[in-house]
Design goal:
The complex is a heterodimer of chains A (121) and B (105). Chain A has 121 residues and is an all-beta fold. In chain A, 0% of the residues lie in helices and 52% in strands. Chain A is globular and about 40 Å long. In chain B, 33% of the residues are buried. Chain B starts with a strand and ends with a strand. The chains are: A mainly beta (121), B mainly beta (105).
């Protein structure tokens, strides 16, 4: 069974750096064609793609947020970490991680349940 | 800037009705488009990939069509559990559309 689970702080202060962890099981990110991505959704708003890391450790970022984002992986722990610098109240959202397989659907076929982050002083 | 525009924003229908959702891309995306369903408090679920392929476990009443810039998600015979939000997404730059809400009339 393939699962992903997001974890991180529920509350961050403006200007702080957010660190979120996606812990997954049932697949290896090192397997050719595997990718993990982060997506967020502010309350009542649409989904917004943030970043993606693939089996070859290539990293891709949203053009609008890329300078604030860093995605990395800890293969020994089956984790993908996303950091977002200089947090602002507009970054309040539910943050999801999701798996993508190049050879499968090519899209995000398995999602975590999401973790809610509030940015407030 | 690449944009996916979904219409209508809201669709008010009754169980058993046919739902037709549209997604238009600002430039051609070939068939690199997916549809997701999202229910309140839940993560999105992949319904359709590469414009017309149903994901694993998705009922046959969901179908996708289109290529290039114009795409359609059709739900033939709405079930009570189908009232939800629907998003389209492009595969190359991972942009999502603004969503269509299918609500109970």
């Amino acid at each position: 069974q393939i699962t992903l689970r997001e974890s991180g702080p529920a509350l961050v202060r403006p200007t702080q750096t957010l660190t979120l962890t996606c812990t997954f099981s049932g697949f290896r990110l090192s397997t050719s064609g595997m990718c993990v991505s982060w997506i967020r959704q502010p309350p009542g708003k649409p989904l917004e793609w943030l970043a993606l890391i693939d089996w070859d450790d290539d990293k891709y970022y949203s053009t609008s947020l890329g300078s604030r984002l860093t995605i990395s992986t800890d293969t020994s722990k089956n984790q993908v970490v996303l950091t977002m610098a200089n947090m602002d109240p507009v970054d309040t959202a539910t943050y999801y991680c999701a798996r993508r397989t190049v050879a499968g659907t090519g899209f995000f076929d398995i999602w975590g349940q999401g973790t809610t982050v509030t940015v407030s002083s | 800037e690449f944009v996916l525009t979904q219409s209508p924003a809201t669709l008010s229908l009754s169980p058993g009705d046919r739902a037709t959702l549209s997604c238009r891309a600002s430039q051609s995306v070939s068939n690199f488009l997916a549809w997701y369903q999202q229910k309140p408090g839940q993560a999105p679920r992949l319904l359709i990939y590469e414009a017309s392929n149903r994901a694993t476990g998705i009922p046959a009443r969901f179908s996708g069509s289109g290529s290039g810039t114009d795409f359609t998600l059709t739900i033939s015979g709405l079930e009570p559990e189908d009232f939800a939000l629907y998003y389209c997404q492009h595969r190359t730059n991972w942009v999502f559309g603004g969503g269509t809400r299918v609500e109970l009339k």
